[in-house]
Amino acid sequence: MRIAAFLRGLIVLLAMTASVPAFAEDGYDLWLRYRPVEEAARVRYQPAATALVSGASSATLDAAKTELMHGLTGLLGSAPALSPSVRNGAVVFGTPKSSPIIAGLKLPLEKAGDEGYLIRSVRIDGARATVIAANSDIGVLYGAFAYLRLIQTRQPLENLDIASAPKVALRMLNHWDNLDRTVERGYSGQSIWDWHKLPDWKDPRYVDYARANASLGINATTLNNVNANALSLTPMYLEKAAALADVFRPYGIKVYLTARFSAPIEIGGLKTADPLDPAVRAWWKAKADEIYRYIPDFGGFTVKANSEGQPGPQDYKRTHADGANMMAEALASHGGEVIWRAFVYSHEQPDDRAKQAYDEFVPLDGEFASNVIVQVKNGAIDFQPREPFHPLFGATPKTPLAMEFQITKEYLGFATHLAYLGSMYEETLKADTWRRGKGSTVAKVIDGSLFGHKRSGMVGVANIGTDRNWSGSDFDQANWYVFGRLAWDPYLSTRDIADEWARQTFSNDPAFLKPTVDMMMGSREAVVNYMTPLGLHHLMARSHHYGPGPWVSGGERADWTSVYYHRADKAGIGFDRTAATGSKATSQYAPQVAATFEDVRKIDEKDLLWFHHLPWDYRTRSGRTLWDELVVRYTGGVSDVTAMRNTWAGLSPYVDKERYAQIATFLAIQEKEAQWWRDASIAYFQTFSERPLPTGYAPPPKPLSYYEALSFPEAPGI
Ligand code: GCV
What we know:
Layout: H1 5-17, H2 39-45, E1 51-53, H3 59-76, E2 81-82, E3 90-94, H4 100-105, E4 117-124, E5 127-133, H5 137-152, E6 161-164, E7 170-174, H6 205-216, E8 220-222, H7 235-248, E9 254-258, H8 263-266, H9 278-294, E10 300-303, H10 320-332, E11 337-341, H11 353-361, E12 372-377, E13 401-406, H12 422-430, H13 442-446, E14 457-461, H14 474-488, H15 494-505, H16 510-531, H17 563-566, E15 572-573, H18 591-598, H19 608-611, E16 614-615, H20 626-649, H21 657-689, H22 704-709
Parallel strand pairs: 1-2, 1-3, 3-5, 7-8, 7-14, 8-9, 9-10, 10-11, 11-12, 12-13, 13-14
Antiparallel strand pairs: 4-5, 4-6, 15-16
Helix pairs in contact: 3-5, 9-10, 12-15, 14-15, 15-16, 16-20, 20-21
Bound molecules: 4-O-methyl-alpha-D-glucopyranuronic acid (GCV).
């Protein structure tokens, strides 16, 4: 990311004279581009940032200094002076411990907490200065990024009085990265972890990864796939993980590893992995001790157990709490923790898959050790374009939970479809569980406030890979961004975050921002409509999940088919999960929520077919029959993408050629694939509805057999 000074000078000069973005960009710089501000902004900002005043140094404070230097030089066109004393335009940064100047200011640092920061306009000995202060070095680094964000988004630098502290303790990425560098459900190249060359070769990209995460406040990363490989716990790989931990430490990012439950057998030579077996417990204790010798601040284990074929405590007739507590005990003396996933379901269990995690975990509430957090996906099935919030949120008052959102778009069009996930995350976080009366939102479960938990978390399944633009597309960077910002504060508006991201990533021009942010905010609903409208879910093709597959049936497990979920027949469509006549999944919610989901007159139609099986002639609120409404929504989803293409076509004056062109092409792919989803789904469901399409709606151009025969054996991400 570093550009030689003369080159930067040249860029400043050219950018000041040109109104159209002159240089192609490849997206590598993410939202930390620090491109020169326009002349009027430079005149306004420069007097406020002429010098940097630091105190004692540390690796983290040095990272803050480097970032401020790099950012201000890029944005304002000249490097700020490094000054020992305060003068007009100084930016003073540090903690009371590192900086006597900050100590002398007696700032209300209690507002910053352990990791937050204050940014204030102050006068020091008569000089106008800005102070970036925190109680900890990492708070200063977060503050430095926030300060640069002010300039990147063209906020005023005068009269600043900002206090910000994270609301969620654990803000983590999960990489589903394998040791051979494949990435499960990854659509942006290979794993960025070059395991083979580690620990000796530390790709400079690792620093940029850490910077990007620190700029959002992400403070933890699980390096490897939850479908775990026990090898990652062997000395050879621990040494490699330790090298990454060393790179990330100054940026406040703790390393976690996935722990394969059967590791004591696979790499430990034991005959069992029974969590109550003393030899197994001793093995995990010794393993934890060993890991801490490599990584003194190791975060802990992320565990997928007894799910989709992974080993777990139930293999020994023990509970999830038995398994989690065994690992928690091994980590406890080192301050480590276990993040135990609640994504468990079994095809041998005849009950509705959507109910299984709740049934498994609610009876265990109160049984988990204090250093266990249970990680729950946003919905009860699996990261579908739309799911009602998971019934576990709010249902385990004694167990701290972490939200698991998917950032990688396994079910929302891989890397090419433009789907801003902010609106999806916000929908879940704002959902009211009613567990402690009105206003008991999922966000309050996740920040720990609903039940008074100090530690709780927000976890995102990363969309990061070796693609030059990191995330497979420029707009997919926004999903990493919005995840991180919400992990810091789950109450932020995702429209504001989209605006903030677009300003930093592309342009501050209002003529660019309004259409772009509107397009982002509508994009996820478009995907819902062309893939799974009205509460339908799990309609994708088998295994690789690319494209439509509502006809998927048979095979090894019913719960991996589409017919299990849509239940279309001649009478109607949808999964009856009501208490009255169906699977009774509605009963897993608080009574107020259950009553809404249970009643077709009260339920929001976005969730209709998630909870109800309804006749094709059922009258929806639009006045149309269910069949007609489905067709209208499928078609509307496609038209929305056409509208997105048109919007983007008008934005070329504001975007450099390279990024503009790729986004335009990706939108064309999305339009084509949206049409495919619509046509294939309508062709299939029509075989049950046996009704014509509403007037004016074009029939699918090909017979159903055509769509069913399409095959993509090498689709990415498996
Ligand atoms: C890591 C879904 C995905 C799997 C993933 C699993 C999980 O089933 O398709 O690839 O496995 O979720 O979250 O564990």
